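Note to self: user wants both folds in one dump. Writing first protein now.
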Amino acid sequence: MATVLLASTPVMGQDLLARQAPVDKKVRAVDTLALQSIIEREEAASPSSSLYQDWDNRYAHKATELPESYRIDLRDFCMPTPSRVITSNFGARWGRMHKGLDIKVYIGDTIRAAFSGKVRVVKYEPKGYGNYVVIRHHNGLETIYGHMSKQLVRENQVVRAGDPIGLGGNTGRSTGSHLHFETRLCGVALNPALFFDFRKQDVTGDFYTFRKSTVDRESAEATRLRGKNDGNGYNREDVTGKATANNQQQNQQRSSGASKFHKVQAGETVYSIARKYNISVEKLAEMNHLGKELRIRPGQLLKYS
């Protein structure tokens, strides 16, 4: 009998282990899901907390120490606007640094979140960004959307890529409606052309690896490849929106056969501009997404053909 018991004990032990294995696997799966849930909640509460030490709604940006390298996930993106026209590039210009891209949009055009994340700032800056929004994203970037006519989100709101966050405008230090779009890492402005190709309405790849040692060279190359004016009659405006009438006329002449634009002068109305180009007020309003009040501002670009 003793011999039989000794022989059967290992078999019973193996059966017990075999029955326990699926249980252990389920427990590990539960633990993994619970941990993932905790991580997701923490990430939603404070996106990219490994890069940023604080969450402050008082300032648009504050530069901190950049990592030597950092991999930025560009998947699950949305272009902030369907406009393909860059009116001003990232870089030195007019004696100062232009820290974003100016994208031609019209007043009232929908502006969308580029990536998922959390809204950090919703403010008005009369001598700078005008109505602007700052979003901190899970991939480490912060994006800034300036000169909007209206913000559609609130501070500390969680947003997904593609959510409407504002409307195109001409507020702040700007003449002529456009979107001033910035991409920042640890508060330091990086060329949005490193990540976005507005002419193709796409990102530059699934990932971008930021490296301190090569970013300046890569930024210059990105502007060369993706920052050119597309030739549709737009001049490269200053960040203040300053563009000479001569430049505007030259650009319109070069765009023969393409869309044409009128730069609103002081005292002009929608009616006087419509008469000037022999089109109806309704058509002019429709082409430029003007509201019922038909409000226009000096310096604004109106499409008339």
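First done. Writing the second protein, which came from a different request thread.
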Amino acid sequence: MMFFKKIALLAIATISTLPSMGQDLLARQAPIDRKMKEVDSVALQRLIFTESFDNPSSDLYEDWDNMHAHSKVTELPDSFRISLKNFCMPTDSRVLTSNFGHRWGRQHKGLDIKVYIGDTIRAAFSGKVRVVRYEGRGYGKYVVIRHNNGLETYYAHMSKQLVEEDQEVRAGDPIGLGGNTGRSTGSHLHFETRLCGVALNPALMFDFRNQDVVDDYYMFRKSTYQKESAIATRLRGAGGMSFGDDESSDEEVELATAAPEASYQQESRFHKVKRGETLFSIAKKRGTSVSAIMKLNHLKKNAKLKAGQILKFN
């Protein structure tokens, strides 16, 4: 200990005997400090920009309200690209019992998924819990989460909530247990997806039967949303059908494929083969070539087409 004290005293004595040297050191250090502040400022600006880019919800909502389920409705953008990456299905159940849309004389603003009391309910995306409340004549025990991708998700009729308001959650974190609370006629999860306070059809983004999202992104467009929503319900809702079902029209197959718009790259489009159609007639109708259709679908020149068969044509 005495050794270190001697070293310290010697250092102080040296600096005191060389005041000009100490001042020179400080003078040289000053611009370095200013430079570091500039670097910190640039780094902070980049961090803010990155967080804003990754969290578009910050530009969509004007307030943060823990008291009311439905946030103040703000103007819907004409179009908005919603990232569906890093998702988790809110429940393992594949059974839908009620669709989004008009029901019993009122608008049903979500999907009902069959779950049993005590089943784990999980956050669909990462975000922050906005509301944890009980509504006896409506949602029962419910949770609302605002996500970085701009969506808010609602989870209703639960038997127990496992999160608190203002809590940060990651996709897949347990947020509650399945139940039958509130205005409910049987145990199920009422699941909503909202943008700017406006309810969107979850079937546009989630495919519960296949336990997956429809694509990496969903491009919301105000001008086509209603039509896309109806098609999504027909294809992925309760009692829905897959692309291969005979009752799906060409237009529905094409729109359902195009609706998500996963990226800025050209989208694949599909044609449902009708009785009597050939590769030549399909190519002519779709403005492409027989060879292009054959290549896209790995077909041989003499391949026989079947009614209801789905072919990619671009």
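Dump finished. Worth passing along: Helices lie at 2-17, 19-54, 57-60, 225-236, 250-258, 279-286, 290-297.
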